[in-house]
Amino acid sequence: MTTGVRRRMGVEERRQQLIGVALELFSRRSPDEVSIDEIASAAGISRPLVYHYFPGKLSLYEAALKRASDDLASRFVEPHEGPLGARLLRVMSRFFDFVDEHGPGFSALMRGGPAVGSSTTNALIDSVRQAAYVQILSHLRVEDPPARLELVVRSWISLAESTALIWLDGRRIPRAELEVQLVHDFAALAAVSAAYDEELTALLRRLLKDEPAEGPFSDLVSRLIALAS
Amino acid sequence: MTTGVRRRMGVEERRQQLIGVALELFSRRSPDEVSIDEIASAAGISRPLVYHYFPGKLSLYEAALKRASDDLASRFVEPHEGPLGARLLRVMSRFFDFVDEHGPGFSALMRGGPAVGSSTTNALIDSVRQAAYVQILSHLRVEDPPARLELVVRSWISLAESTALIWLDGRRIPRAELEVQLVHDFAALAAVSAAYDEELTALLRRLLKDEPAEGPFSDLVSRLIALAS
Protein backbone atom coordinates (compact mmCIF):
# COMPACT_ATOMS: atom_id res chain seq x y z
CA MET A 1 0.00 0.00 0.00
CA THR A 2 2.97 2.36 0.44
CA THR A 3 3.68 4.22 -2.79
CA GLY A 4 6.38 6.54 -1.46
CA VAL A 5 8.39 7.57 1.56
CA ARG A 6 5.51 9.54 3.00
CA ARG A 7 2.84 7.65 4.92
CA ARG A 8 -0.64 7.73 3.32
CA MET A 9 -3.14 9.65 5.42
CA GLY A 10 -6.74 8.58 5.93
CA VAL A 11 -9.49 10.81 4.49
CA GLU A 12 -10.46 12.45 7.77
CA GLU A 13 -6.84 12.83 8.86
CA ARG A 14 -6.01 14.53 5.56
CA ARG A 15 -9.02 16.82 5.85
CA GLN A 16 -7.97 17.85 9.34
CA GLN A 17 -4.40 18.46 8.21
CA LEU A 18 -5.63 20.63 5.31
CA ILE A 19 -7.88 22.60 7.66
CA GLY A 20 -4.92 23.25 9.96
CA VAL A 21 -2.68 24.38 7.10
CA ALA A 22 -5.43 26.57 5.66
CA LEU A 23 -6.24 28.15 9.03
CA GLU A 24 -2.58 29.03 9.49
CA LEU A 25 -2.51 30.77 6.07
CA PHE A 26 -5.95 32.41 6.41
CA SER A 27 -4.88 33.78 9.82
CA ARG A 28 -1.65 35.39 8.69
CA ARG A 29 -2.94 37.14 5.57
CA SER A 30 -6.29 38.35 4.33
CA PRO A 31 -8.13 35.19 3.10
CA ASP A 32 -8.68 36.92 -0.27
CA GLU A 33 -4.93 36.74 -0.84
CA VAL A 34 -4.52 33.04 -0.07
CA SER A 35 -4.73 30.71 -3.10
CA ILE A 36 -5.55 27.01 -3.28
CA ASP A 37 -2.12 26.52 -4.90
CA GLU A 38 -0.48 27.95 -1.81
CA ILE A 39 -2.53 25.76 0.52
CA ALA A 40 -1.67 22.70 -1.57
CA SER A 41 2.01 23.60 -1.52
CA ALA A 42 2.02 24.22 2.26
CA ALA A 43 0.27 20.87 2.81
CA GLY A 44 2.72 19.10 0.48
CA ILE A 45 0.01 17.80 -1.84
CA SER A 46 -1.21 18.58 -5.35
CA ARG A 47 -3.88 21.16 -6.16
CA PRO A 48 -6.31 18.52 -7.55
CA LEU A 49 -5.95 16.56 -4.32
CA VAL A 50 -7.06 19.63 -2.31
CA TYR A 51 -10.19 19.75 -4.49
CA HIS A 52 -10.70 16.06 -3.76
CA TYR A 53 -11.25 16.92 -0.09
CA PHE A 54 -12.87 20.36 -0.42
CA PRO A 55 -14.98 21.47 -3.41
CA GLY A 56 -13.49 24.98 -3.35
CA LYS A 57 -11.70 27.63 -1.40
CA LEU A 58 -14.88 28.83 0.34
CA SER A 59 -15.65 25.41 1.82
CA LEU A 60 -12.07 25.08 3.06
CA TYR A 61 -12.25 28.61 4.48
CA GLU A 62 -15.50 27.77 6.26
CA ALA A 63 -13.99 24.61 7.74
CA ALA A 64 -10.95 26.58 8.97
CA LEU A 65 -13.23 29.25 10.41
CA LYS A 66 -15.27 26.57 12.20
CA ARG A 67 -12.11 25.30 13.89
CA ALA A 68 -11.05 28.85 14.85
CA SER A 69 -14.57 29.58 16.19
CA ASP A 70 -14.54 26.47 18.37
CA ASP A 71 -11.09 27.42 19.61
CA LEU A 72 -12.15 30.96 20.49
CA ALA A 73 -15.37 29.85 22.18
CA SER A 74 -13.38 27.38 24.32
CA ARG A 75 -11.21 30.26 25.56
CA PHE A 76 -14.27 31.94 27.07
CA VAL A 77 -14.71 29.07 29.51
CA GLU A 78 -13.46 30.11 32.92
CA PRO A 79 -13.88 28.42 36.32
CA HIS A 80 -16.65 29.90 38.47
CA GLU A 81 -14.24 30.77 41.24
CA GLY A 82 -12.85 33.96 42.68
CA PRO A 83 -13.73 37.61 41.97
CA LEU A 84 -15.56 38.40 38.71
CA GLY A 85 -13.19 41.15 37.63
CA ALA A 86 -10.21 38.78 37.74
CA ARG A 87 -12.15 36.10 35.84
CA LEU A 88 -13.08 38.52 33.07
CA LEU A 89 -9.50 39.78 32.90
CA ARG A 90 -8.20 36.23 32.34
CA VAL A 91 -10.74 35.71 29.54
CA MET A 92 -9.70 39.03 27.96
CA SER A 93 -6.09 37.88 28.01
CA ARG A 94 -6.99 34.66 26.19
CA PHE A 95 -9.19 36.64 23.75
CA PHE A 96 -6.25 38.89 22.84
CA ASP A 97 -4.01 35.82 22.50
CA PHE A 98 -6.46 34.54 19.89
CA VAL A 99 -6.68 37.90 18.13
CA ASP A 100 -2.90 38.13 18.12
CA GLU A 101 -2.52 34.64 16.63
CA HIS A 102 -5.11 35.21 13.90
CA GLY A 103 -4.69 38.98 13.31
CA PRO A 104 -5.04 39.54 9.55
CA GLY A 105 -7.65 36.79 9.15
CA PHE A 106 -9.65 38.10 12.11
CA SER A 107 -9.60 41.64 10.69
CA ALA A 108 -10.64 40.52 7.21
CA LEU A 109 -13.46 38.40 8.61
CA MET A 110 -14.84 40.99 11.02
CA ARG A 111 -14.55 43.88 8.58
CA GLY A 112 -16.40 41.85 5.96
CA GLY A 113 -15.23 41.37 2.43
CA PRO A 114 -16.09 39.64 -0.84
CA ALA A 115 -14.61 36.24 0.06
CA VAL A 116 -15.69 36.14 3.65
CA GLY A 117 -19.31 37.28 3.79
CA SER A 118 -21.21 34.01 3.33
CA SER A 119 -24.19 33.09 5.48
CA THR A 120 -22.11 30.25 6.97
CA THR A 121 -19.37 32.61 8.11
CA ASN A 122 -21.94 35.01 9.56
CA ALA A 123 -23.57 32.14 11.44
CA LEU A 124 -20.18 31.13 12.86
CA ILE A 125 -19.49 34.69 14.03
CA ASP A 126 -22.90 34.79 15.68
CA SER A 127 -22.30 31.43 17.38
CA VAL A 128 -19.09 32.77 18.97
CA ARG A 129 -20.89 35.91 20.14
CA GLN A 130 -23.63 33.75 21.60
CA ALA A 131 -21.05 31.55 23.38
CA ALA A 132 -19.54 34.67 24.96
CA TYR A 133 -22.98 35.91 25.99
CA VAL A 134 -23.94 32.58 27.59
CA GLN A 135 -20.63 32.41 29.49
CA ILE A 136 -21.00 35.92 30.88
CA LEU A 137 -24.57 35.31 32.05
CA SER A 138 -23.48 32.10 33.77
CA HIS A 139 -20.79 34.00 35.68
CA LEU A 140 -23.30 36.70 36.61
CA ARG A 141 -25.54 33.85 37.83
CA VAL A 142 -28.46 35.21 35.79
CA GLU A 143 -30.69 32.81 33.88
CA ASP A 144 -33.37 35.05 32.47
CA PRO A 145 -31.73 38.45 31.89
CA PRO A 146 -33.83 41.62 31.83
CA ALA A 147 -33.64 43.52 28.51
CA ARG A 148 -31.22 46.14 29.87
CA LEU A 149 -28.76 43.53 31.11
CA GLU A 150 -28.92 41.68 27.81
CA LEU A 151 -28.15 44.97 26.06
CA VAL A 152 -25.18 45.68 28.35
CA VAL A 153 -23.66 42.22 27.80
CA ARG A 154 -24.26 42.02 24.05
CA SER A 155 -23.15 45.57 23.35
CA TRP A 156 -20.04 45.07 25.48
CA ILE A 157 -19.19 41.98 23.40
CA SER A 158 -19.32 44.13 20.27
CA LEU A 159 -17.17 46.72 22.05
CA ALA A 160 -14.57 44.01 22.76
CA GLU A 161 -14.59 43.05 19.07
CA SER A 162 -14.14 46.59 17.85
CA THR A 163 -11.45 47.31 20.46
CA ALA A 164 -9.51 44.26 19.23
CA LEU A 165 -9.91 45.33 15.59
CA ILE A 166 -8.68 48.84 16.34
CA TRP A 167 -5.76 47.38 18.30
CA LEU A 168 -4.77 45.21 15.32
CA ASP A 169 -4.67 48.31 13.11
CA GLY A 170 -1.20 49.49 14.15
CA ARG A 171 -1.03 48.08 17.72
CA ARG A 172 -0.46 51.55 19.08
CA ILE A 173 -1.75 50.74 22.58
CA PRO A 174 -0.28 47.87 24.65
CA ARG A 175 -2.72 44.96 24.62
CA ALA A 176 -2.41 44.41 28.39
CA GLU A 177 -3.80 47.89 28.89
CA LEU A 178 -6.74 47.16 26.60
CA GLU A 179 -7.50 43.90 28.42
CA VAL A 180 -7.88 45.82 31.71
CA GLN A 181 -9.74 48.62 29.93
CA LEU A 182 -12.35 46.21 28.59
CA VAL A 183 -12.98 44.85 32.09
CA HIS A 184 -13.44 48.44 33.24
CA ASP A 185 -15.64 49.22 30.24
CA PHE A 186 -17.93 46.36 31.24
CA ALA A 187 -18.32 47.80 34.73
CA ALA A 188 -18.82 51.30 33.33
CA LEU A 189 -21.51 50.26 30.82
CA ALA A 190 -23.29 48.22 33.50
CA ALA A 191 -23.14 51.19 35.89
CA VAL A 192 -24.56 53.58 33.27
CA SER A 193 -27.43 51.20 32.63
CA ALA A 194 -27.94 50.54 36.34
CA ALA A 195 -28.24 54.27 37.00
CA TYR A 196 -31.69 54.04 35.37
CA ASP A 197 -32.76 50.59 36.44
CA GLU A 198 -33.32 49.23 39.96
CA GLU A 199 -33.03 45.57 38.98
CA LEU A 200 -29.62 46.18 37.41
CA THR A 201 -28.56 48.26 40.40
CA ALA A 202 -29.32 45.37 42.74
CA LEU A 203 -27.46 42.95 40.50
CA LEU A 204 -24.44 45.24 40.24
CA ARG A 205 -24.31 45.71 44.04
CA ARG A 206 -24.41 41.93 44.51
CA LEU A 207 -21.59 41.44 42.03
CA LEU A 208 -19.37 44.24 43.32
CA LYS A 209 -19.58 43.35 46.98
CA ASP A 210 -17.29 40.33 46.44
CA GLU A 211 -14.68 42.27 44.53
CA PRO A 212 -11.36 42.60 46.37
CA ALA A 213 -9.88 46.01 47.23
CA GLU A 214 -6.94 45.37 44.89
CA GLY A 215 -9.02 44.01 41.95
CA PRO A 216 -9.63 45.75 38.62
CA PHE A 217 -13.11 47.02 39.58
CA SER A 218 -11.97 48.70 42.79
CA ASP A 219 -8.99 50.10 40.93
CA LEU A 220 -11.36 51.69 38.42
CA VAL A 221 -13.54 53.26 41.10
CA SER A 222 -10.58 54.89 42.86
CA ARG A 223 -9.19 56.19 39.55
CA LEU A 224 -12.56 57.63 38.53
CA ILE A 225 -12.91 59.34 41.89
CA ALA A 226 -9.46 60.88 41.38
CA LEU A 227 -10.53 62.01 37.89
CA ALA A 228 -13.73 63.62 39.11
CA SER A 229 -12.00 65.56 41.89
CA MET B 1 -43.64 62.37 -27.75
CA THR B 2 -46.34 61.45 -25.25
CA THR B 3 -47.30 57.81 -25.60
CA GLY B 4 -49.61 57.62 -22.60
CA VAL B 5 -51.16 59.58 -19.80
CA ARG B 6 -47.99 59.40 -17.71
CA ARG B 7 -45.26 61.96 -18.41
CA ARG B 8 -41.98 60.49 -19.73
CA MET B 9 -39.13 60.87 -17.24
CA GLY B 10 -35.54 61.71 -18.19
CA VAL B 11 -32.89 59.06 -17.60
CA GLU B 12 -31.45 60.61 -14.44
CA GLU B 13 -34.90 61.43 -13.09
CA ARG B 14 -36.02 57.83 -13.63
CA ARG B 15 -32.86 56.49 -11.98
CA GLN B 16 -33.46 58.69 -8.93
CA GLN B 17 -37.10 57.60 -8.74
CA LEU B 18 -36.09 53.92 -8.90
CA ILE B 19 -33.48 54.45 -6.18
CA GLY B 20 -36.12 56.03 -3.95
CA VAL B 21 -38.61 53.21 -4.53
CA ALA B 22 -35.91 50.58 -3.99
CA LEU B 23 -34.65 52.23 -0.80
CA GLU B 24 -38.18 52.25 0.58
CA LEU B 25 -38.54 48.51 -0.11
CA PHE B 26 -35.01 47.58 1.02
CA SER B 27 -35.59 49.48 4.27
CA ARG B 28 -38.84 47.78 5.21
CA ARG B 29 -37.81 44.18 4.59
CA SER B 30 -34.56 42.29 4.42
CA PRO B 31 -33.05 43.15 0.98
CA ASP B 32 -32.78 39.40 0.25
CA GLU B 33 -36.57 39.27 0.18
CA VAL B 34 -37.12 42.16 -2.24
CA SER B 35 -37.37 41.19 -5.92
CA ILE B 36 -36.77 43.26 -9.04
CA ASP B 37 -40.39 42.48 -10.01
CA GLU B 38 -41.58 44.12 -6.85
CA ILE B 39 -39.42 47.18 -7.40
CA ALA B 40 -40.68 47.45 -10.99
CA SER B 41 -44.25 47.15 -9.82
CA ALA B 42 -43.82 49.75 -7.06
CA ALA B 43 -42.21 52.14 -9.56
CA GLY B 44 -45.01 51.51 -12.09
CA ILE B 45 -42.63 50.33 -14.83
CA SER B 46 -41.78 47.01 -16.48
CA ARG B 47 -39.09 44.64 -15.23
CA PRO B 48 -36.98 45.05 -18.44
CA LEU B 49 -37.07 48.81 -17.97
CA VAL B 50 -35.58 48.44 -14.46
CA TYR B 51 -32.71 46.49 -16.05
CA HIS B 52 -32.33 49.29 -18.58
CA TYR B 53 -31.33 51.63 -15.73
CA PHE B 54 -29.57 49.17 -13.40
CA PRO B 55 -27.74 46.02 -14.55
CA GLY B 56 -29.01 44.00 -11.60
CA LYS B 57 -30.42 44.02 -8.10
CA LEU B 58 -27.01 44.48 -6.47
CA SER B 59 -26.28 47.70 -8.37
CA LEU B 60 -29.72 49.07 -7.48
CA TYR B 61 -29.18 48.01 -3.86
CA GLU B 62 -25.80 49.76 -3.80
CA ALA B 63 -27.31 52.95 -5.26
CA ALA B 64 -30.07 52.87 -2.60
CA LEU B 65 -27.49 52.27 0.12
CA LYS B 66 -25.43 55.21 -1.15
CA ARG B 67 -28.45 57.46 -0.79
CA ALA B 68 -29.16 56.13 2.71
CA SER B 69 -25.50 56.54 3.71
CA ASP B 70 -25.44 60.17 2.58
CA ASP B 71 -28.69 60.75 4.46
CA LEU B 72 -27.33 59.23 7.68
CA ALA B 73 -24.00 61.07 7.46
CA SER B 74 -25.89 64.36 7.01
CA ARG B 75 -27.74 63.70 10.29
CA PHE B 76 -24.44 63.71 12.19
CA VAL B 77 -23.87 67.36 11.33
CA GLU B 78 -24.67 69.48 14.36
CA PRO B 79 -23.96 73.18 15.04
CA HIS B 80 -20.88 73.80 17.20
CA GLU B 81 -22.91 75.60 19.83
CA GLY B 82 -23.92 74.85 23.38
CA PRO B 83 -22.94 72.01 25.72
CA LEU B 84 -21.46 68.87 24.15
CA GLY B 85 -23.78 66.45 25.93
CA ALA B 86 -26.84 68.16 24.49
CA ARG B 87 -25.30 68.19 20.99
CA LEU B 88 -24.54 64.48 21.14
CA LEU B 89 -28.03 63.76 22.42
CA ARG B 90 -29.60 65.56 19.44
CA VAL B 91 -27.43 63.54 17.06
CA MET B 92 -28.46 60.31 18.82
CA SER B 93 -32.09 61.26 18.37
CA ARG B 94 -31.59 61.75 14.61
CA PHE B 95 -29.58 58.50 14.45
CA PHE B 96 -32.46 56.56 16.02
CA ASP B 97 -34.91 58.29 13.65
CA PHE B 98 -32.84 56.88 10.79
CA VAL B 99 -32.62 53.41 12.34
CA ASP B 100 -36.37 53.49 12.94
CA GLU B 101 -37.11 54.47 9.33
CA HIS B 102 -34.82 51.81 7.84
CA GLY B 103 -35.09 49.08 10.51
CA PRO B 104 -35.14 45.75 8.65
CA GLY B 105 -32.75 46.96 5.93
CA PHE B 106 -30.37 48.40 8.54
CA SER B 107 -30.37 45.11 10.47
CA ALA B 108 -29.79 43.00 7.37
CA LEU B 109 -26.95 45.23 6.22
CA MET B 110 -25.15 45.50 9.56
CA ARG B 111 -25.53 41.82 10.41
CA GLY B 112 -24.13 40.91 6.99
CA GLY B 113 -25.68 38.44 4.62
CA PRO B 114 -25.36 36.88 1.21
CA ALA B 115 -26.92 39.72 -0.77
CA VAL B 116 -25.44 42.57 1.15
CA GLY B 117 -21.76 41.80 1.74
CA SER B 118 -20.10 43.33 -1.33
CA SER B 119 -16.95 45.42 -1.09
CA THR B 120 -19.01 48.44 -2.19
CA THR B 121 -21.48 48.04 0.68
CA ASN B 122 -18.62 47.60 3.16
CA ALA B 123 -16.94 50.75 1.83
CA LEU B 124 -20.22 52.67 2.29
CA ILE B 125 -20.58 51.45 5.88
CA ASP B 126 -16.99 52.50 6.58
CA SER B 127 -17.59 55.93 5.03
CA VAL B 128 -20.53 56.54 7.39
CA ARG B 129 -18.42 55.45 10.39
CA GLN B 130 -15.66 57.77 9.25
CA ALA B 131 -18.14 60.66 8.87
CA ALA B 132 -19.29 60.07 12.46
CA TYR B 133 -15.69 59.93 13.66
CA VAL B 134 -14.74 63.19 11.91
CA GLN B 135 -17.82 64.97 13.29
CA ILE B 136 -17.09 63.90 16.86
CA LEU B 137 -13.44 64.99 16.67
CA SER B 138 -14.51 68.38 15.31
CA HIS B 139 -16.87 68.87 18.26
CA LEU B 140 -14.11 67.82 20.68
CA ARG B 141 -11.91 70.39 18.89
CA VAL B 142 -9.18 67.81 18.40
CA GLU B 143 -7.32 67.64 15.09
CA ASP B 144 -4.70 64.99 15.71
CA PRO B 145 -6.19 62.54 18.22
CA PRO B 146 -3.93 60.44 20.45
CA ALA B 147 -4.37 56.67 19.96
CA ARG B 148 -6.47 56.28 23.13
CA LEU B 149 -8.92 58.98 22.09
CA GLU B 150 -9.25 57.50 18.62
CA LEU B 151 -10.03 54.16 20.26
CA VAL B 152 -12.68 55.69 22.53
CA VAL B 153 -14.43 57.45 19.66
CA ARG B 154 -14.28 54.59 17.16
CA SER B 155 -15.26 51.92 19.66
CA TRP B 156 -18.13 54.07 20.91
CA ILE B 157 -19.39 54.39 17.30
CA SER B 158 -19.50 50.58 17.10
CA LEU B 159 -21.28 50.53 20.47
CA ALA B 160 -23.92 52.89 19.07
CA GLU B 161 -24.40 50.58 16.06
CA SER B 162 -24.78 47.47 18.18
CA THR B 163 -27.09 49.24 20.62
CA ALA B 164 -29.33 50.24 17.70
CA LEU B 165 -29.30 46.69 16.30
CA ILE B 166 -30.23 45.20 19.67
CA TRP B 167 -32.99 47.80 20.03
CA LEU B 168 -34.43 46.84 16.61
CA ASP B 169 -34.60 43.22 17.75
CA GLY B 170 -37.85 43.52 19.70
CA ARG B 171 -37.71 47.20 20.76
CA ARG B 172 -37.92 46.17 24.41
CA ILE B 173 -36.29 49.35 25.73
CA PRO B 174 -37.68 52.82 24.87
CA ARG B 175 -35.43 54.44 22.29
CA ALA B 176 -35.32 57.78 24.16
CA GLU B 177 -33.70 55.95 27.05
CA LEU B 178 -31.08 54.43 24.75
CA GLU B 179 -30.31 57.81 23.21
CA VAL B 180 -29.45 59.20 26.66
CA GLN B 181 -27.65 56.00 27.60
CA LEU B 182 -25.34 56.25 24.57
CA VAL B 183 -24.40 59.82 25.54
CA HIS B 184 -23.61 58.49 29.01
CA ASP B 185 -21.72 55.53 27.56
CA PHE B 186 -19.51 57.95 25.65
CA ALA B 187 -18.63 59.79 28.85
CA ALA B 188 -18.09 56.51 30.71
CA LEU B 189 -15.79 55.02 28.06
CA ALA B 190 -13.83 58.28 27.88
CA ALA B 191 -13.53 58.36 31.68
CA VAL B 192 -12.28 54.75 31.82
CA SER B 193 -9.65 55.55 29.22
CA ALA B 194 -8.74 58.85 30.88
CA ALA B 195 -8.14 57.06 34.18
CA TYR B 196 -4.91 55.74 32.59
CA ASP B 197 -3.94 58.67 30.41
CA GLU B 198 -3.06 62.23 31.40
CA GLU B 199 -3.67 63.73 27.97
CA LEU B 200 -7.19 62.28 27.90
CA THR B 201 -7.79 63.41 31.48
CA ALA B 202 -6.93 66.99 30.53
CA LEU B 203 -9.18 66.81 27.47
CA LEU B 204 -12.07 65.38 29.47
CA ARG B 205 -11.73 68.07 32.15
CA ARG B 206 -11.79 70.76 29.46
CA LEU B 207 -14.91 69.26 27.89
CA LEU B 208 -16.80 68.67 31.11
CA LYS B 209 -16.23 72.11 32.60
CA ASP B 210 -18.73 73.66 30.17
CA GLU B 211 -21.45 71.10 30.85
CA PRO B 212 -24.51 72.55 32.59
CA ALA B 213 -25.68 71.20 35.97
CA GLU B 214 -28.91 69.93 34.36
CA GLY B 215 -27.23 68.33 31.29
CA PRO B 216 -26.91 64.60 30.57
CA PHE B 217 -23.27 64.37 31.75
CA SER B 218 -23.94 65.93 35.14
CA ASP B 219 -27.03 63.79 35.48
CA LEU B 220 -24.88 60.70 34.96
CA VAL B 221 -22.32 61.73 37.56
CA SER B 222 -24.95 62.28 40.24
CA ARG B 223 -26.65 58.97 39.42
CA LEU B 224 -23.36 57.10 39.57
CA ILE B 225 -22.51 58.67 42.91
CA ALA B 226 -25.90 57.53 44.22
CA LEU B 227 -25.21 54.04 42.87
CA ALA B 228 -21.78 53.82 44.52
CA SER B 229 -23.05 54.94 47.92
From TrEMBL, chains A, B:
Residues 12-72 form the HTH tetR-type domain. Pfam families: TetR_C_46 (PF21943), TetR_N (PF00440). PROSITE patterns: HTH_TETR_1, HTH_TETR_2. SUPFAM superfamilies: Homeodomain-like. Keywords: DNA-binding, Transcription, Transcription regulation. The keyword Translocase does not apply. Residues 35-54 bind DNA. Gene3D superfamilies: Tetracycline Repressor, domain 2 (1.10.357.10). GO terms for molecular function: DNA-binding transcription factor activity; transcription cis-regulatory region binding. InterPro entries: DesT_TetR_C (IPR054129), DNA-bd_HTH_TetR-type_CS (IPR023772), Homeodomain-like_sf (IPR009057), HTH-type_TetR-like_transc_reg (IPR050109), HTH_TetR (IPR001647). PANTHER family: HTH-TYPE TRANSCRIPTIONAL REGULATOR RUTR (PTHR30055), TRANSCRIPTIONAL REGULATORY PROTEIN (PROBABLY TETR-FAMILY)-RELATED (PTHR30055:SF174). This is TetR/AcrR family transcriptional regulator. It comes from Streptomyces cupreus.
